[in-house]
Amino acid sequence: MGSIIVLLKLCAGIGLFLFAMYLLEESLKNLSGRNFKLFLQRMSKNKIGAVAGGAIITGLLQSSSMVSLMVLAFVGAGVFSIKNAFAIILGANLGTTLDSWMVATLGFKTNIEVLAYPAVFIGGLLLIVWGKRESIQYFSYFLFGFGLLFIGLSFMQTAMETQVQHFNFAQYASMPLIIFLGIGFLITILVQSSSVTMALTLTALHSGAVNFPVAAVIVLGSETGTTVKLLLSGIGGTANKKRVVLGNLLFNIFLTIFAFILLKPILHLISDIFKISNPLIALVTFSSLINFGSILLFLPLLQPFVSFLENFFKDNNTALAAYIGNASIAEPQTALDLLRREAAYFLHNCMLLNLEQLSIGTSYLEQNADFNRFNNKKKFSIKSTEEKYDFLKLLQGELQLFYLSLRSKLQGDSIIEANQLAASVRSALYSVKSLKDIKSNIFNLLRSSQNIKFDLYTLRQKQTERMYRLLNHLMEQKEKINHDELYKALHAIQDNYRSALNNFYQAAQSSPLVGIDTTTVINFNRALFTSNEAMIIAVKDLLLDEKEAEIFDELASYR
Known about the structure:
Blueprint: H1 2-32, H2 35-43, H3 47-61, H4 64-76, H5 82-95, H6 97-107, H7 112-130, H8 134-166, H9 177-191, H10 194-207, H11 212-225, H12 227-233, H13 239-261, H14 263-273, H15 279-298, H16 302-309, H17 332-357, H18 369-378, H19 385-407, H20 413-436, H21 439-446, H22 451-476, H23 484-508, H24 515-543, H25 546-558
Helix pairs in contact: 1-8, 2-3, 3-5, 4-5, 4-12, 4-13, 5-13, 5-15, 6-10, 6-15, 7-8, 8-10, 9-11, 10-11, 10-15, 11-13, 11-15, 12-13, 17-19, 17-20, 17-22, 17-24, 19-20, 20-24, 21-24, 22-23, 22-24, 23-24
């Protein structure tokens, strides 16, 4: 009966540790918002920066799996190249060892209760009293996670020490080390966290259940065990996602085999050269050393390795989406980032088609390298107007379905942002449809021999081009914008609509027009205004945050 209680206590410790890791991950992810992802994208311009970015982000979030899944989503969306994705994952493997250092240096050398209990108390108090505020809620989760991490470790430590007193582990010490390699692999597959495997191994090492070489081999086995989650996430993805998953699997298998073969020299280096006598510090040094060594060994070979992987998997992705075609809602914030990019890509193409329908040049819109690359791949530029419109309708369908599946995974401000993005896409397509419906009117005015009609058309062309240049400029800006410029644009198109109509009526009094001419001009002017207004609303919902969007709506309604 006593052994069962000890086993249950060990399981409780593992459960608390896992829950603590989840709380820490969720709290830091939500407290940081988009900052981690934007930082990672900025750092991934080259492979050295990508390694550093992966290590820093994982060191803060303490979840190499989460970072790897996020990277996998961006690879599927074409945001990251395969080479930079691997560089980030290399850095993530090193960054995850920070948690091991914290456990080894604090968890077994200090009075755990001094750290854990106050954190849980303060976290619970903040959650009950001020938990309705989102920032306080996630800060409470962070304190809870921090406290439960050490309480779970305490449970594991107590259970392991009790078991050592009543069980002779020495009889297993002579077993082949490769068996312990498999144990580390299996534990990591079961708990889906190399950090938990490390914590269990540190606990076993501290209590004397295993020695340093055995502990090192268990940790080594966990390196390959972490690939399973990524392996499952790559099923059904793009060819590039599958290549990243295959590469990660091959790399970790190679690393495990290579380090296992060189185990004795590595342990000798740590114990005799570095003279680290504390077994806990020695173990986390071993983990950090093999991950750092893998970066030095593998980084120069990234390009040949990527070239090798490109021989595998045929890219048969038929989705129209540029970014969300293979994104997973399992990581909602990453999925939301990709939805935002997809909405911007959608608006970009709607603007291209609108300008084309009005016979306005689009060279200033075609400077976005990413959008151009996707459009070249989808052969968007050589499609007819009808084909482009059908393309946008189908793409909107993919966007809306993705939005509906993602919405249930979001909360708070993220839901509001997703709603705005979906509304932005709807408004942009309505803008396109408004012009498409007056195709015959546009044709008539553009080729009219009557100056009154042709001059009105060319004037409205120039006014519309100015508006689109402004909208494109705002979309290309990296920093957040406010409502002012968009409201001025809305104000301008309202004035342009009225003045164009009034000028036409005045000029028509002395011009030989027939009834159908008047109808053509009125329909064109009204539809153009409706289209331009819808496009401004689309850009508003894409670029403005909730507060700025509300101010814009209030001003627009008032006017």
